[in-house]
Amino acid sequence: MQVELFDHLLLLAAVICAATLVRLLRGGDGIGRGYAIVVGIELVWAVFSMGASRFSGTIALSLVVLTVALPWALERLSRWAFARGYLAWVGRLSGLRAMLMPGAGLSRQLPILEGLSLLDRKGVDAALAHFRRLADEAEDGAELAMIHEQIVSMLFHGQRWDEGIAHYERRFHAGYAALRPSLALGLLRAYGESGRIETAAGLLRELEDGPIGDDPNTAELLGQARLTFLAYAGAVAPVDEVVQRRRFAALGLTPATAELFKGIALVRAGERREAVETLSKVEELAGPRDRRVLEAARAVLEPAREAAGDDEASEPGPKVEAAPSPGLSLGEAIELPDELRVYVEVVAARLQSFLVATPPVRRHERPIATYAVMVALSTVYGVHLLRGGGGIGLMELGALSEDLWRGGAWGRVFTSAWIHMDLVGLLFDVYAIWLAGQIIERMLGPARMAAATVLAGLAGMAASVLALPLLWQLGLDRLAVVAPTGGNLMAVGAITAALWLLLPSRTPALASRPRRNLVVTLSLLLVANLLTSWPGVAGVGVAPIALLTTIAVASLVAIALPLEQPRWLGVALGSLVGAALVVNAAAAVLVIGEDPETYLVDHRSQRCEIGGLVVHTSIGVTPMSLDRDVPFNLPIVDGLLDTLELRDGSLVQLAVYRGALADPSSPALFELVEGIDGELSATAAGTLPEPFAEIMADDPTGSWHAADLWRNGLRVGRVIERRLELPAAQAAAQAADQAADQEPATVMLIASPAEAVDHAPSLYAAMLREAEFIEGPEEGRSSRIRCTVE
Question: Which keywords, in A-to-Z order, does the entry hold (predicted)?
Fold first, then answer.
């Protein structure tokens, strides 16, 4: 089990390296190609370490953790710290990340990050001194421009608006900010704080007419710029509409930021009392990321309170023209020239058009439902990985079986939808849910995200068993498949709903390039999921009816309900999802109390004819007559195959050899498969599980045999045989028939690895023990393996 877990970790490391390498080769993140080479080497190392020495694998895992996984975590932590204003921690975390990423070229960013750290620890003046020193030492023009941008940002951070504007106008040409979106937003606010509304209007025109205005990727930023301008121009109505209709999320703003802009607009419009009430709400709405917003609100609130207090004793102050004023007190109302007033109306209309075309997006709400589904699927797989147990272990965890369904185990319809059988499938599905789930949840909310995944997956599993009678009646036996697990159905539901939402009619504001990238990626994931889930030659997979039902339910969730759903509909969906989860919990409790192996021993519903013998098996055992390569050290032979074990990574087969054995001391497998005795050697079996040990201890005829199979000094499998002689009465009856076959038979259980026999020893022992010759003459009997459900 430890070796298997170690190989799983190596596989996970290889997948992480592959995903990282793809992202690096796409470029655009400022990371050097040298680091891509390092990650590529680690990918190859991890792949070749699978099945190799433990020492090599340990080194590969350690390198991946240190140079890929840990830097990724540090990057997320630094973003979290930056969003909350912990700039000193940003510098420390980024410095450590640069050390762990050889060839990335991140060390060039460290002086800038050091300046941000100084800002956090020692204030604006210390940061300014640091950047000015860097500017004196810089020789590259692009590097110098970036440093001066930081100086301007530091001055704006310290609310030294006029100094920041002066430094910008001294170092850069007039249209430079139109090419630097972040700088433009800060400069736009600075012009507003300094009362230079016409200059701010000119900057906004440059943004709208420049590359930013033509790029759909910057539509959100342009919306922020328009809202900023409207706030400082005193346009209360359009700003208030953004707040009241909660459209600020479409601009990437928090509720506290939107309330701040509304308060500024009220102050500029001379409505001081309302402004005080609005600005007072900012502190209540502020979250961990709104530290700077709180500082800005407090800076405006105190003068606004003073002005509001003066209003109680006197008439409102005189109105002034905005253009000639070098600065504007917060206690004064602003009056715009006619030309500027017209432009304000145009900007308000453009902002309104953008917000109407953009569906409500919950950008600053964590996709809790998405993460919850991902964690639940990963946790269930982790539990199975730690418990082991093969196919029966999956059933004990809640996998669905047609035998158990017939016995009334309805709860498995719910529990099986959360189970994955292999790590690669889990990783693909978790990635698909992460990518698609965020689209769904941020546009439609957590209730519909859960409905598109959980409810759709449960509906698919339910349809796979409820449709069985109809499919049999229609003669569609090949489609009458009951999948043991359905964890991939949730990924299918999430991808389907996300693809519907990515239609231009549903998200008109989304740029064509990111839309195309998302559609292509999700479509490839969906096709790969459907191909791997479709029932294969071994009879494994997910029922087609389950896939179609899941797609149908997810489609209804995405397109049949309005984007802006009424509150009652959200509550109804949430209640439905909650009820499904409660029933799921009850089903899990029922599953825990079941003993699937004991039930299958007593209720095997399938009768199989193989090599003149009758064997009673569970429905998950499937006829197999293929000669193909498999990732095991033993070949697949003509016989019966335990498909659930195969999906879980073990090979368990039941085969029959007819005829006398040339060497009774050797396994019949060596007679069945020509030439295999030159590849494998056999020794007496080690400790057998209890049912087989008891049978062999009580076997007076010596008809039971067990051997371990070895290849190159490694134990690669185990074979347990029961040798049957034709009953005397049946042999006498067939003696008169010269064409009859009177040869003895050997029924054998073949497992690789050898420990796979331990997964369901009672079931396998019962299958071998109750195998018997088919009564009646064998002449004319089909040589094909036939299985029928009784």
Answer: Membrane, Transmembrane, Transmembrane helix
